[in-house]
Write a structure and sequence with these properties.
Helix content is 37%, strand content 29%. The chain is of the alpha/beta class and 164 residues long. The chain has one domain: Ribonuclease H-like superfamily/Ribonuclease H (Nucleotidyltransferase, domain 5), CATH 3.30.420.10. A hairpin with a 4-residue loop joins strand 1 and strand 2. Helix 1 runs parallel beside helix 3 and helix 4 packs antiparallel against helix 5. It starts with a strand and ends in a 12-residue tail after the last helix. This is Putative ribonuclease H-like domain-containing protein. GO terms for molecular function: nucleic acid binding; RNA-DNA hybrid ribonuclease activity.
């Protein structure tokens, strides 16, 4: 069973513009494909869900069947795994993501810390400066090459925890 890993993230700037980014990697951590997308105006959570929606669609189009999705949004992971009530403002996009998730043989969604989601974070920020729409990439852009090398070398990443 060949699993791929899909990392997704969303971004929002001070003007309220949102974007999303994502990367698909194989079992060894090698880049398979990626994307960034400018989604117009919205909330950070909308940006996160656009990243998930576009990443799932991209993975379906590439015929992947076993997908591990990682996001640094605890809210996204909780809503995807626990469901959402009928009055939630993002119910339609959440339902769309859940419908896409069911198209895979296996698709798990889990939370990770932002420090280990750097490639998707950079891609989502690239989206803020791009034209509206999704931009698909078969090769990593220069902005993420160093991060990919650090990941492949298993360079440690430290998380700062403030003292109280």
């Amino acid at each position: 069973m060949n699993w791929i890993k899909l990392n997704v993230d969303g971004a929002r700037n001070h003007a309220g513009m949102i974007s999303a980014g994502g990367v698909v990697r194989d079992h060894s951590g090698s880049w398979l494909c990626g994307f960034f997308a400018n989604s117009g105006c919205g909330t950070v959570l909308q940006a996160e869900f656009w990243g998930l929606l576009l990443g799932l669609k991209m993975s379906i189009d590439a015929h992947y069947q076993h997908v591990l999705v990682e996001s640094d949004s605890e809210v996204l992971v909780k809503l995807m795994n626990d469901g959402v009530d009928a009055l939630h403002p993002l119910k339609s996009v959440i339902n769309s993501c859940q419908a896409l998730q069911r198209q895979f043989q296996r698709c798990e969604i889990k939370h990770i810390y932002r420090e280990v989601n750097k490639v998707a974070d950079v891609l989502s920020k690239i989206g803020l400066d791009s034209e509206i729409g999704m931009h698909f990439m078969m090769q990593p852009p220069p902005q993420v090459i160093t991060i990919l090398l650090d990941d492949s070398c298993e360079t440690p990443c430290f998380r700062s925890i403030p003292c109280i």
